[in-house]
């Protein structure tokens, strides 16, 4: 008798668990249909948006980055990526990672002027003024 009750108890638990799983599947299907219709509506709205909005969005993303700015290169801010890579943002908002030669030219110092050749003059943290040569090295100017 005890064995029979035990078997009935196990059978009842199995049936209730199975019905709960069926209810969950039904809910997932219903939410999937809702999500699909929302996705279709969003896609239709996106297709209707003019090209100017896309260009404005790209410009806005080019101005902002979640990563920390670590310096400047050719007048553009240089950001430090999540894995340590340095990059600038293009006009479209794409990341352009720097190669080793470009990394040498990145500086976090303030631009205080330009040379006769048009190269920027930087001021270091202790007040020294320098330019960056073709090899990416700092060339300090003599104080007057």
Number of helices: 3
Number of strands: 8
Beta strand %? 15-25%
**Shape by Cα distribution:** rod-shaped
The helicity comes to 40-55%
Strand arrangement, major sheet: 1-2-3-4
Q: Give helix and strand order, one letter per element, not per position.
A: HHEEEEHEEEE
- Class derived from helix and strand content: alpha+beta
Runs in which pLDDT lies below 50 for 5 or more consecutive residues are: 54-62
Overall radius of gyration: 31 Å
Q: What's the mean pLDDT score? A: 74
For the sheet with most strands, the description reads: 4 strands, antiparallel
N- to C-terminal distance? 107 Å
Total domains: 2
Description:
The chain is α+β, with helices and mostly antiparallel strands. It folds into two domains: 66 residues, no CATH class; 36 residues, no CATH class. Helices cover 45% and strands 24% of the residues. It contains three helices and eight strands; from the N terminus they run ααββββαββββ. The strands form two sheets. A four-stranded antiparallel β-sheet has the order 1-2-3-4, with no helix packed on it. A four-stranded antiparallel β-sheet has the order 5-6-7-8, with no helix packed on it. A hairpin with a 2-residue loop joins strand 1 and strand 2. The protein is rod-shaped. The protein starts with a helix and ends with a strand.
């Amino acid at each position: 008798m005890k064995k029979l009750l035990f078997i009935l108890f196990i059978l009842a638990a199995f049936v209730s668990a199975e019905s709960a799983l069926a209810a969950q599947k039904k809910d997932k299907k219903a939410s999937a249909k809702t999500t699909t219709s929302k996705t279709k509506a969003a896609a239709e709205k996106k297709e209707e948006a003019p090209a100017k909005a896309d260009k404005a969005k790209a410009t806005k993303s080019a101005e902002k980055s979640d990563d920390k700015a670590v310096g400047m290169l050719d007048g553009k801010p240089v950001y430090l990526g999540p894995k340590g890579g340095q990059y600038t943002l293009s006009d479209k908002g794409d990341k352009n990672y720097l190669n080793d030669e470009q990394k040498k030219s990145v500086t976090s110092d303030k631009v205080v002027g330009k040379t006769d050749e048009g190269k920027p003059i930087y001021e270091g943290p202790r007040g020294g003024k320098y330019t960056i040569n073709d090899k990416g090295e700092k060339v300090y100017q003599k104080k007057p």
